[in-house]
Amino acid sequence: MAYEGILLGMGNPLLDISAVVDEDFLKKYGIKLNDAILAEDKHLPMYEEMTKKYEVEYIAGGATQNSIRVAQWMLQIPGATSYMGCIGKDKFGEEMKKNSKLAGVNVHYYEDGTAPTGTCAVCVVGGERSLVANLSAANCYKSEHLKKPENWALVEKAKYFYIAGFFLTVSPESIQLVAEHAAAKNKVFMMNLSAPFICEFFRDVQEKALPYMDYVFGNETEARTFSKVHGWETDNVEEIALKISQWPKASGTHKRITVITQGADPVVVAEDGKVKKFSVILLPKEKLVDTNGAGDAFVGGFLSQLVQEKPIEECVRAGCYAANVIIQRSGCTYPEKPSFN
């Protein structure tokens, strides 16, 4: 099977500015752990403050880009994955390009001359993370870039598409173009719930894309928010996963599968009206460095097996393996070679 360009991701490329901070810093900016939000004016000084006050690391991030990089790492097949998103024409953008090339991902960035490359403050306290994204250039992605022949060629080539829900705030039109292409050509289209605020404030565009989703990923907090927004009156993650999997589909070729992670609790997979649970690899607390990128890494591991048409059990096992590797390191980084077999 030819793997070149088999998996295409689209999303918001962000440079993670990651640091271990203290509770006071979280309080000062009114942010809570295990959350992901978009920066408001009151958050803008925090990026500068982090670099002055704490020891920061810069890591190429953004949810979709993380997942694609991890899938690429797990596959170890150069050029198996491609990625599109918008960066600025600046040093952070250059850093991002260098990072992605090293990772072996075929990136086609749209470069915007008016806005700086997007950044994401990753505030780590006790191993748990809080994300505050300042999209900047990432917010400037246009579907015109996607329609260019050299970029649309990546869409034509791919058999699997993955887009984090965060991209719904930027270019729903691009998502729709790819989703409709996937449905017409019997390809596999996948998205992530990504954050409670997406389910709450971007409900309309999320619902428009949902019929096209063959796989829906998320974590327990996002699943419960999705349930609340849709008036389902249940907090039971298994029930919610089932309901999402049974949401009407635009194309009948693939049945929808919902995959919900729950931190250290079992992964919930709903398909065909049934729920399966898979245990994760438990990690002693002292080995946990930070949870940033754990969910993205899970998806990346999962996708690395899915594109090889492995059974769902194997996809989940690879997802758990990748997440386990990532949480023992700072940010969404990994060793040179995976030891997954």
TrEMBL record:
InterPro entries: Adenokinase, Carboh/pur_kinase_PfkB_CS, PfkB_dom, Ribokinase-like. Keywords: ATP-binding, Host-virus interaction, Kinase, Magnesium, Nucleotide-binding, Purine salvage, Transferase. ATP dependent phosphorylation of adenosine and other related nucleoside analogs to monophosphate derivatives. Essential to sustain methyl recycling. Its EC number is 2.7.1.20. GO terms for biological process: adenosine salvage; AMP salvage; purine nucleobase metabolic process. The keyword Nucleotide-binding applies. It comes from Gossypium arboreum (Tree cotton). This is Adenosine kinase. GO terms for cellular component: cytosol; nucleus. It catalyses: adenosine + ATP = AMP + ADP + H(+). Belongs to the carbohydrate kinase PfkB family. It comes from the Eukaryota. Pathway: Purine metabolism; AMP biosynthesis via salvage pathway; AMP from adenosine: step 1/1. Signal peptide: none annotated. One of its GO terms (molecular function) is ATP binding. PROSITE patterns: PFKB_KINASES_2. The keyword ATP-binding applies. Its cofactor is Mg(2+). It holds the Pfam family PfkB.
